[in-house]
């Protein structure tokens, strides 16, 4: 499997509930909040790595968009959980996401130039495709709180745009 798709495949298995029996029944709202925040934070950290390593204008602009948008959604999520007096609950899914993302960033950190740019953007395509699928199929349907569900639906629309942008950007890289 191509290295940029490894994290996407791992996230897909984790978010689909393949590794935890609790998620097979559907995650709880506190778990969903933690998973969603963790997924956004992962993308911020990966984009920050891209801003350190890439010299390509279009890749840097994309990474800046990822930092801005994912931080904004995470800020809204934090405000919502505070308003609802909900404590996000760490879980096997969010722990697995962090572990896999740390490994992927370590691989990306060893690359440079065009090789880095392609691997970073390919990872973003796979990551957004998988996270968007998890939002659609697991997280949004499992959410019982209307405000959380609404935030996840708004995030999904933004992240679908990210996926399309990443796919277009990947096609333009030489």
Layout of secondary structure:
Elements: H1 3-15, H2 21-24, H3 29-53, H4 57-84, H5 92-109, H6 113-142, H7 146-172
Could you describe the 3D structure shown?
With 174 residues, the protein is mainly α. The protein has a single domain (3-172), classed as Ferritin, core subunit, four-helix bundle (Ferritin). 83% of the residues lie in helices and 0% in strands. The protein contains seven helices and no strands. The chain is elongated. It starts with a helix and ends with a helix. Mean pLDDT is 87; it is low at 1-23.
What labels describe this entry?
mainly alpha, 83% helix, Ferritin, 174 residues, 0% strand
- Which assembly state applies to the chains in this document? single chain
Q: State the helicity in percent bands.
A: over 70%
Count up the domains.
1
The description of the largest β-sheet is: none
Would you state the CATH class?
A: Mainly Alpha
User: What spatial form do the alpha-carbon principal axes imply?
Assistant: elongated
What is the CATH H-level superfamily? Ferritin, core subunit, four-helix bundle
How widely separated are the two ends? 21 Å
Q: Based on the coordinates given, report the CATH architecture.
A: Up-down Bundle
**CA gyration radius, whole angstroms:** 16 Å
Give the helix tally: 7
Helix and strand string, N-terminal first?
HHHHHHH
Mean pLDDT: 87
Class by helix and strand content?
A: mainly alpha
């Amino acid at each position: 499997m191509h290295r940029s798709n490894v994290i996407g495949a791992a996230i897909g298995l984790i978010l689909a509930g393949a590794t935890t029996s609790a998620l097979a029944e559907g995650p709880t709202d506190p778990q969903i909040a933690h998973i969603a925040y963790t997924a956004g934070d992962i993308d911020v950290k990966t984009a920050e790595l891209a801003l350190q390593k890439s010299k390509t204008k279009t890749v840097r602009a994309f990474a800046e968009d990822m930092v801005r948008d994912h931080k904004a959604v995470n800020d809204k999520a934090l405000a919502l959980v505070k308003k609802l007096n909900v404590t996000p609950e760490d879980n096997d899914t969010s722990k697995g996401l962090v572990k896999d993302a740390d490994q992927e960033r370590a691989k990306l950190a060893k690359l440079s130039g065009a090789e880095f740019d392609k691997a970073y953007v390919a990872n973003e395509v796979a990551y957004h495709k998988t996270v968007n699928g998890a939002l659609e199929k697991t997280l949004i349907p499992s959410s019982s709180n209307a405000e959380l569900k609404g935030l996840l639906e708004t995030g999904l629309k933004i992240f679908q745009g990210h996926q399309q942008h990443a796919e277009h950007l990947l096609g333009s890289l030489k």
